[in-house]
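In this section we walk through a basic example: taking a raw amino acid sequence and producing a predicted 3D structure, encoded as discrete structure tokens. The instruction is simple. Fold the sequence below.
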Amino acid sequence: MHPIRSQNLDFYLEYDMTENPDSYNFFLRHAYLKVGSLLLGRSFTTFIDSAVLPDVDTGSAPGQIFLKRDQIRWTRLFRDDALELALALEQPDSQISAPNCACIRNYDDDHIPYVASRLTWWADWGQLSISGMLRSLRWQQNEQSLSKTVGGAGLSGRIKLGVVDDLRFMANYGNGLGRFITSGAYADASLARDFSELNPHPVVTMLAAYQHYWSEKWRSTFSLSASQSSLSGSASEQMTKRARSAQVNLFWSPVPDLSIGLEFLHGQRQLLNKQDGELNRLMFSVRYTL
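The resulting token sequence is shown next.
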């Protein structure tokens, strides 16, 4: 960190080796430069407040928005630093499903960055954020090109319960939110059967999590999550209509920077054709923070 004309210059880099469960390739999570109010690089999308993400495995909750984007973000504090406004232009791409196909393909032919904004309010009881997003979906094949403008809104918060316990929540609704949802079960839109237009998929997501400290070294988080999409007539019968999950864990921190935990997840999913299935998973983790 170095001062530049009374501004702080910060650089942050974070990576892991979990891009593919069958390999140990490096995967870039965050890489950004921050000068005063301006952030340049890769970080959490501005559409979410990362401070409300629950202390559970983030890759499986179907009601959670969790996405990192290359972006240019500007922030401004108001009212004695109790309010923060964030505006960003972020890396565009679209997840489109073909007619009568359950596959979801990623298209990076988008030419217009999407706009994301968030207003966060901090108080003695915790914090609350409202967010908005406007983006252009785009599909291109050979000389044919289709586009559609979509948007979404979100509400999230973190409420203090006692000295260290808290309740975290988020709820989101909009067209083209499939790209933002952690489970990867939803497309942003589907192509019409004659490839004449894009039909966006409205999605609603909800998540609530309670974190409780049993003692200074032991803590648990219980999380409930759900999402549902309104699919167009051109969507495949094999596409996900709704999903939900419950997660509970127990973490032990013998020293402040080390967490050793065990987590159980139960998930359910239903397709448009009424087929459903469930997942039960037990996960052991060790995390050390430098």
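Looking at the output, two observations stand out. The two ends are 17 Å apart (CA to CA). The chain has a mean pLDDT of 88. In the next section we compare this with other chains.
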